[in-house]
Amino acid sequence: MTSSAPSVPLVGSLAELRRRVADWRARGERIGFVPTMGALHDGHLSLVEEARRRAERVVVSVFVNPTQFAANEDFGRYPRMLEADLDRLARVAADLCYAPAVEEMYPPGFSTGVTVGGPAEADLEDRFRPTHFAGVAVVVAKLLNQAEPDIAVFGEKDYQQLLVIRRMARDLDLRAEIVGAPTLREADGLAMSSRNVYLSDEERRVAPALHRALVAAAGRISAGEPIGHVMGEAREEVATAGFAIDYLEARHALTLARIARRQDGPARLLAAARLGATRLIDNIAVEEAR
What we know:
Layout: E1 10-11, H1 14-26, E2 31-36, H2 42-54, E3 57-62, H3 82-91, E4 96-98, H4 102-105, H5 125-128, H6 132-147, E5 151-155, H7 159-171, E6 177-181, H8 201-206, H9 209-222, H10 227-241, E7 244-252, E8 267-275, E9 278-285
Parallel strand pairs: 1-4, 2-3, 2-5, 3-4, 5-6
Antiparallel strand pairs: 7-8, 8-9
Helix pairs in contact: 6-7, 9-10
């Protein structure tokens, strides 16, 4: 149920955002920041709670960024529900919601981009969405410059994106510490995502199979089974469940380089697969054997 008035202060202009942040900083308060595209769920709220543990003030942005969507993607139908988002942010005591218009973020004549390499060229998401990380990088760089936070929290569900943003912030000397927060899941293991609303009832029943396959594969690799064999069987399992797989791979957790043996470094399993028209992504760490 939504309220008739904003439950968290809402600003749409960069000037007002900077005025509020400057007032807090003048009082010696640390600023936390959580960038989102809205359609907030409990996974997003967990990021706000993580920021709250690390800072006195928390700003959440809601901006559906057109530059990270390709022409064949779902920019037009991406869910937008700002009033409900404000009510959810009130539940976790966010201090401010920054929801700029596209014209505020990209005024007429805007012509600057951010070129990203390293983890942005890992042959994972970038293979299927070649312009995506350039769009993410420019909007995140702008938001971090606009809000000037001490810390910014991003979910580990978008793991490659997290590494891209960490690399960009380091390379461009941005002041914010980039914090990764664990993926929040439904009771059956499905990673929370704004796109889950696109799943039909039957697809929603099948969807947790992706996470189950990752968990099983991670356990087998941790126990010493060969990575190539395990990942091949995981792909077969996911395809048999009804997914069309974009990728399901074991990578080095820090660089996203391909790994063939457990000894090659800390491992992360990453997957993207489609159920019908809905594309799901997920990832988990391979724990060290005890």
